[in-house]
Amino acid sequence: INTQKITGKKMPKMTIRVFIVAVIVLVIFFSLATLWAVKNVSIPIVSRSEYSQSTIGAGTYLAKIVSITDEGQITLGEHEQLYQTMLVSVLQGKYSGRQFSVTYGTTQLRSDSTRFTPEQKIYIVVSAGADGELHAYYADFDRSKVLLLLLFSFIVSVLALGRRKGLGSIVSLCFSMFIILGYIIPHILAGDNPVSTSLIGSGVLLGFSLYITYGWNLKTHASVISMIFTLIITGSLSALFVNLAHLNGYGDENALFLIQLSSVQINVQGLLLGSMIIGTLGILDDLVTSQSAAVVEIHGANPDLNVRQTFISVIRIGQDHVAATVNTLVLSYTGASLPLLLVFTLAQGSYQYLINSEMLAEEIVRTLVGSLGLVAAVPISSIVAAFIIVNQHKLMKLGEWRTLFGPETNDHAKGYHAH
């Protein structure tokens, strides 16, 4: 096919060569940077061993409140709160059918707004005392029905608005959780490097999610390629700044709990790096896909624009995307650290020390590295998508392109702008 007849312009062969060379150089550069960053993170070599046999929730059973036997006000320290004594019946496990007396609010500070009534379900812990007699203690409220109702509302809303894409997004969400719970977490617990594990798992789940949600087309191909580059950049920056800032991953109290719970030697610093990579995936998915979709629409409205002109047009859209997504990322991480900020403000501490502390420094590095990754995603996705979409007819024959790589996007039936 004569590409000059299709587009009215002839594409210089040098453009394709320069792009291919640039892609190869970028891949080599960022791969070497990632390897350097991972190897230079000062983490002891981890060892594989059996998982800890301790189980969270062991001895916990679902029970139903039969009656409230006593209630009133009690003073703990200087705090007055409600207490209740309940007769409960165990609904599951080896104590099913047995009844216990359970108190709430007599030994610990509790929310005074909580009022239990008969027929409500709660979780209790059953344990044997020194005399061998069984005792039951309140553990938590049963929220399963509320969570199932919320999940059902979410699925119905997504399917009603998204239709086929909504179904694809739900399937991709399930696959993402499968990769995280079935691949990333087990490999980290087994002693594998969290950075490489998170990069591999993220690449797999993002690729699958995008193709399931948006279909096999040029827009999705461009998005996947762009995200691979962006993940490499984010991983490299994370490893570099975590190492330079001497962050060891113990700023989160959950890391200390994890070390105490597990018999496996966990790579805590690498776990911090992996969490930074995974933390940017959701917003990165939206940002890269939006940029690729913008390229498709701009090219559809004016197919005579070359790669440079299309890139300039779509980068203006990307400026708004960056402003919105970076703000979203910063606010989400700030919200997670809000209790720490409140405690430090009440204690009238030094903000200079607060910013330098391990707990907040991890969040600062996580936020800024994630933001840098998002900023890098805009020009990367714009140039990749612009090159692929604008030059789709010039890279190979139209028939082979249609068979191998699909249309520009599944939303457009024609999608090739053959004019």
Radius of gyration: 28 Å
Helix run count: 14
Strand content: 5-15%
Percentage of helical residues?
55-70%
Order of helices and strands: HHEEEEEHHHHHHHHHHHH
Overall pLDDT, averaged?
76
Strand arrangement, major sheet: 3-2-1-4-5
- Biggest sheet features: 5 strands, antiparallel
What structural class results from the helix and strand content? Answer: alpha+beta
Distance between the termini: 12 Å
Low-confidence stretches: 1-12, 37-54, 413-419
The count of β-strands is: 5
- Outline type: elongated
Could you please describe the fold and organization of this structure?
It is elongated, with a radius of gyration of 28 Å. By secondary structure, it is an alpha+beta fold. Helices cover 62% and strands 12% of the residues. The chain has a 5-stranded antiparallel sheet, with no helix packed on it. The longest helix is centred in the middle third of the chain and has 46 residues. The N terminus and C terminus are likely disordered. Helix 4 packs antiparallel against helix 5 and helix 5 packs antiparallel against helix 7. It is built from 14 helices and 5 strands.
